[in-house]
Amino acid sequence: MKPRYFVAGNWKLNKGAAESATFMKALSGALPAGAARDIDVVIAPPFTSLPAALGPGPKDVSLAAQDVFWEDRGAFTGEVSASMLRELGVRYCIVGHSERRLYFQETDRMVNLKTCALLRNGIRPIVCVGERSDDRRAGTMQSVVKFQLSSALFDVSIKGPDELVIAYEPVWAIGTGNVATPRQAEDMHEIIRRTLEKCFGVDIGSRVRILYGGSVNTDNIGGLVDMDNINGALIGGVSLDLDKFIRIITLISQKE
Ligand code: PGA
Description:
Layout: E1 6-10, H1 17-30, H2 35-38, E2 40-44, H3 50-54, E3 61-65, H4 82-88, E4 92-95, H5 98-103, H6 108-120, E5 124-129, H7 133-138, H8 141-152, E6 165-168, H9 182-200, H10 202-205, E7 209-213, H11 221-225, E8 232-235, H12 242-253
Parallel strand pairs: 1-2, 1-8, 2-3, 3-4, 4-5, 5-6, 6-7, 7-8
Helix pairs in contact: 8-9
Bound molecules: 2-phosphoglycolic acid.
2-phosphoglycolic acid binds near residues 235 and 236.
């Protein structure tokens, strides 16, 4: 049986506090009945919008941060710790997004430290992995993704499959309109699945949710989540549009 579907909206550097509160209120009123009970729905606003998004949101929609620092406290100007996120009521946190790897020189080691800090504080990491177009052209995409994943999960242990989420986001598909085909995505998800089973054993590894991300929209989501190892999506641009985001949730809930 497939694990429960998971849909997360990554707002990136969009929507301040007021706009986030308005969106969450509207989401509360517009979510199809029972959808958020059957699917995990998560929104990741910018840090400063988290408190505003938390209040008016539907009770069964969780919030994610888009990043975290690995130390709990200290002289680290500009950083936010996992314990601070937990205090706000944040349940998930994206780590290792390719934009952070690219623009902020985030390394596999940092992704691992962040993953461990989140788990230590009871926040569920959404660990992003994905190859660049060069890697795909060179045919090295599988080893690149395997390496990113095993580095991120070094020394990580979980007690159950829901404590961790993986997002496969090929860099060439993010924000480009150039979505991976369901087959291309599933091929990589199968590799990720085997790696998870090796790390955590088959019982847990077979049930950790693996999301696809990169130019997901209302037209392509159905074909993607039909694949055995695609358990939902991490959605950027389209998640900023309430109607389209709801449409995606509705389409996935019809797969249940
Ligand atoms: P996109 O972004 O849906 O706009 O391609 C996905 C992501 O970066 O998580």
